[in-house]
Amino acid sequence: MAIKILSVDDSRTIRLIVGKAFRPYHVTIVEAANGEEGLAAAAREKPDLIILDVTMPVMDGVTMLTKLKEDPALKAIPVIMLTAESGRENVLQIARLGVRDYLVKPFKEDQLIEKAGRCVTLEKRPAAAPV
Amino acid sequence: MSQTIQVPNICEFMNRHLLDVFETMLSMKVAAVADAGLPQFEDRVTGCVAFAGEHVNGAVYLHLGTLFAGQVAAAMLGLAPADLGEAEVNDVVGEVTNMLTGGLKSWLCDSGAECAVSTPAIIRGSSFVIEPVPDVKREWLVFDCHPNRIVIELHVKVG
Description:
The complex is a heterodimer of chains A (131) and B (159).
Chain A: E1 3-8, H1 12-21, E2 27-32, H2 35-45, E3 49-53, H3 61-70, E4 79-83, H4 88-96, E5 101-104, H5 109-117
Parallel strand pairs in A: 1-2, 1-3, 3-4, 4-5
Chain B: H1 7-26, E1 31-33, E2 44-53, E3 56-65, H2 66-77, H3 86-110, E4 115-117, E5 121-125, E6 137-145, E7 148-158
Antiparallel strand pairs in B: 1-6, 2-3, 2-4, 2-5, 3-7, 6-7
Helix pairs in contact in B: 1-3, 2-3
């Protein structure tokens, strides 16, 4: 069965990059554009992993993560935070919230796959036959 | 606030950080061009993200020629430039500007100058000029990504 990953980011570009990174794997990507949509999608889809942006309109990633951890049905879902800010305070704040891992933008797709692979088992799709 | 936050230090950081963003996200080799004249773009796509704090504020503008902006978007999304519309290109330029300014914010915060950043905005056109308000210093950082030029226009007020 395909792993389900919820990508929460207000940037469509980042959601597309996340989708592209997991294309070679048996992964279904579910998208949300802010924390509020992300919480609803998490409750509805029960993803195996959440990749969560920090700075977003409507509800930011820190608030979404806090609410996620307060929900007994969702708190066990591993979360990888994706942030454009690598400052010490920012990283410490994220770590205190109980994320599984974090990735600082700019990032390489390989780094994302490696970190996701530590949270869920990623299975490669068979390579397409040459035409 | 740390004494290391001066406009030349900010420019030095942005010079390094732009190279990192383009290499990591786009696999594009970029080199800073010292003493370059200001490039003349016929048409350009400009991303803007502002930053503001008690000790420092300003904005980062990333100027890319329109054709090159399409190539950058295509490289980032793994698509052909012909498959991309204006909205996709705008989103990518906004995101690259956001990464540049996010890195600057981290550097400023680690140096003792807490600040917040805005969401990205995009300007498209061929003959516009962005004027800084009084007391704000403007710096131009020019980069070569053969055969294209990348320009960062930095508006900064320290103190």
